Amino acid sequence: MEATDGAEESIAMTDWTLVERRLEVALTPRRRPVAVAFRDEPPAGVSRFSGTEPSGCSFWRLAAEGRTFYTVPADHLNCAIGSYTHNVPLPSERAVELEQTLDMMTGLGYVRMEEIPAIPRLERTPGAVVYAPLGDTPVDPDVVLVAGLPGRIMLLNEAATRAGVAGLPMLGRPTCMALPAVRGGGLVASLGCTGNRQYTDLADDELYVAIAGADLPRAVAELDGIVAANATLAEYHATRRRQLTSVGEPGSRARPAVS
To answer: Of 106, 123, 147, 256, which alpha carbon lies 20 to 30 A from 132's?
Structure first.
């Protein structure tokens, strides 16, 4: 999906407030889902980010806390890896930072240089990146980030599968590559990375799902049915566990319990 200025898109804009509310009821996330939109130009009526952050994913934290704003490429220069995934060229005087970062990571055994070309990145540099809590997004998002406990994120993944949304293999580091990975469509789970967890306060028991904004409404439409089915199956499996679990003496043959 190519970046647009959003004028035509807003005519049939999805009710993202309702979408977020349905996600909140079904998934009970600890933080708000984040809408991310890549644009050629800043959208009208949206404030530009003022200040500095150490990484592109730091903007996710601000949006999850309730802020709506846009960034420009210069705001992403503090993270060499994030600049790479967002196709933001470092200025000549800072170009060495990417090499230095990669040298450090490879020296630690964290990443191999041959892995770098396989990391997804945007096809071209965005003129502006819009961040917002999903329900407050001023434009239709290209990607929506949902963070939560695995047992709850599982429900969104199952709903997306039922809706026919293409699922991609789970991603790890760097977390920010999840955005270009699904910008054109689909869903991917991401375990996050240590940098992202430091910059966004993502807890050790949480992970992400990144889903294309165009695909999210279809997935959310299936959530109620998936949640109800899982509740019924949880009772079914709990009953089977009670009925069929027994522990025998060492060396003896366990027999199923009789209900």
So the answer is: 123
Per the prediction, the chain carries an average pLDDT of 88
Cα torsion 43, 46, 52, 56: sign: negative
Please check whether residue 98 is in contact with residue 90, taking contact to mean a CB–CB distance below 8 angstroms.
yes
Contacts of 203 (CB under 8 A, 6+ apart): 30, 197
Helix (H) / strand (E) element for 187: namely strand 187-190
User: Which residue do the tokens 């054109």 mark?
Assistant: 184
What phi and psi values does residue 48 have, to the nearest 5 degrees? -80, 145
User: Which two three-digit tokens encode residue 200?
Assistant: 């966004």
The whole-angstrom distance between residue 36's C-alpha and the CA centroid of its chain comes to 10
Quick check: 209 pLDDT over 90?
yes
Domain parsing of the chain, residue ranges: 36-244
Answer positive or negative: Cα dihedral of 160, 164, 165, 166: positive
Tell me the whole-structure pTM to 2 decimals: 0.85
Q: How many CB atoms lie within 10 A of CB 102?
A: 18
Distances (CA, A) of 75 to 47, 60, 108, 133: 14, 13, 27, 19
Give the Å distances, CA to CA, from 200 to 75, 183, 197: 17, 21, 5
Measured between alpha carbons, how far is residue 33 from residues 117, 134, 192, 218 in Å? Answer: 29, 5, 15, 16
